[in-house]
């Protein structure tokens, strides 16, 4: 069935192992984040086998899938919604929180042992978290809640504002953690997210127990924020394959007034000025976007895309049923994974499985 998304599980495992071993040499652990692949248990299992100290996901249903396959420990890396708290307390070993009321509710539903908490601190990304000057007060209130344990702080970089990480910011995070270390249960933990911190690890030696939460790095083999390969790794983008519906030579569109597309935008097209072979494939904006696709077949470029189909300009005429392959970027992978129309194929040397 097409479109078909192919995920090389062994490749992800090898990349994860390389990252985990490099971090471990500096005394840093790796938490494998599965959200880009929708909490797929096959990927979670591969990440743990490759050396991850645990798994994380931002969506409760994805975390529940991992838990159903007895994969652990699990971290919910987005503060839970109020109606999720009861289930989160049963599923997650650790939860990122920024609001005392949420943490209190987690403790009320704790399953007989404490739910570990990581207090989110905003060092400039302006997404979730308390400000550094608010951390001591928030940590003091969290540490006294029944049914929970404060184990450290979590910071994110380059998620919303685009603020890049730096060793200076890591040191700032350590200074913040130092102010609340005595309120933590056990050795305080600094949790850094996400893959964009990896290029800065070579010159960083942590003062505290430290982990990196990363998902794009293990899957893509690169830091997508800076668009560079991680040292020692090759870029490994997932591949999507779509079937041809029709193909033939057509003239350019005629002159005349044009309206918006069905999404209310000016159509984004790259149609040629002369006759060209237009090839229609069964892959639309419900599955991906033109900017997310890099053709892997020679003589192919994306001219435009509507809800359910894309138009390619190709050097040759294709027969219906032939397929065309594309490498996906992060957004393209997220769209493909969450589309119910895209079949997922997870490839391992010993076996293949489809979703």
Provide a descriptive summary of the structure in words.
The chain is an alpha/beta fold. It has two domains: 8-223, TIM Barrel, CATH 3.20.20.10; 239-328, Lyase, Ornithine Decarboxylase, Chain A, domain 1. 25% of the residues lie in helices and 28% in strands. It contains nine helices and 19 strands. The strands form three sheets. Strands 1, 12, 13, 14, 15, 16, 17, 18 and 19 form a nine-stranded mixed sheet that branches. Helix 2 (41-49) links the parallel strand 2 (28-33) and strand 3. Helix 1 packs parallel to helix 2 (41-49) and helix 4 (85-91) packs across helix 5 (100-108). The radius of gyration is 23 Å and the shape is elongated.
What labels would you give this structure?
alpha/beta, Lyase, Ornithine Decarboxylase, Chain A, domain 1, 2 domains, nine-stranded mixed β-sheet, eight-stranded parallel β-barrel, 28% strand, elongated
Compact description:
The chain has nine helices and 19 strands. With 355 residues, it is α/β, with parallel strands linked by helices. The protein has two domains: 8-223, TIM Barrel (Alpha-Beta Barrel); 239-328, Lyase, Ornithine Decarboxylase, Chain A, domain 1 (Beta Barrel).
Average pLDDT works out at: 94
Summed up, the helix count is 9
Distance between the termini: 11 Å
Could you please say which CATH topology of the largest domain applies here?
Answer: TIM Barrel
Radius of gyration: 23 Å
Number of strands: 19
Tell me the β content: 25-35%
- Please, how many domains? 2
Which descriptor suits the 3D outline?
elongated
CATH architecture of the largest domain: Alpha-Beta Barrel
CATH homology superfamily of the largest domain: Alanine racemase
What is the H/E string? EHEHEHEHEHEHEHEEHEEEEEEEEHEE
């Amino acid at each position: 069935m097409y479109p078909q998304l192919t995920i090389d599980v062994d490749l992800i495992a090898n990349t994860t192992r390389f990252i985990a071993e490099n971090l471990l040499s500096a005394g840093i652990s790796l938490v494998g984040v599965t959200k880009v692949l929708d909490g797929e248990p096959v990927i979670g299992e591969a990440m743990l086998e490759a050396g991850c100290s645990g798994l994380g996901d931002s969506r409760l249903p994805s975390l529940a899938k991992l838990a159903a396959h007895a994969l652990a420990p699990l971290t919910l890396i987005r503060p839970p919604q109020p109606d999720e708290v009861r289930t989160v307390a049963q599923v997650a070993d650790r939860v990122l929180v920024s609001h005392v009321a949420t943490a209190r509710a987690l403790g009320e539903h704790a399953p007989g042992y404490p739910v570990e908490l990581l207090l989110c601190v905003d060092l400039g990304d302006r997404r979730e978290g308390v400000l550094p000057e608010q951390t001591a007060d928030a940590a003091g209130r969290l540490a006294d809640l029944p049914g929970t344990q404060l184990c450290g702080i979590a910071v994110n970089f380059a998620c919303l504002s685009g603020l890049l990480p730096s060793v200076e910011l890591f040191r700032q995070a350590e200074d913040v953690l130092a102010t609340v270390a005595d309120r933590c249960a056990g050795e305080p933990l600094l949790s850094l997210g996400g893959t964009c911190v990896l290029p800065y690890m070579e010159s960083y030696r942590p003062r505290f127990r430290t982990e990196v939460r990363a998902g794009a790095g293990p899957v893509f083999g690169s830091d997508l924020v800076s668009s560079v390969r991680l040292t020692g790794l090759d870029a490994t983008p997932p591949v999507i394959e779509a079937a041809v519906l029709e193909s033939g030579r057509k003239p350019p569109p005629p002159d005349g007034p044009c309206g918006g597309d069905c999404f209310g935008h000016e159509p984004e097209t790259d149609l040629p000025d002369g006759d060209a072979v237009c090839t229609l494939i069964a892959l639309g904006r419900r599955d991906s976007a033109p900017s997310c696709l890099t053709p892997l077949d020679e003589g192919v470029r994306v001219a435009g895309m509507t809800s359910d189909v894309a138009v390619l300009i190709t050097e040759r005429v294709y027969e219906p049923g032939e397929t065309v392959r594309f490498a996906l970027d992060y957004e393209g992978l997220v769209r493909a994974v969450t589309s119910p129309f895209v079949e997922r194929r997870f490839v391992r040397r010993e076996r293949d499985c489809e979703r």
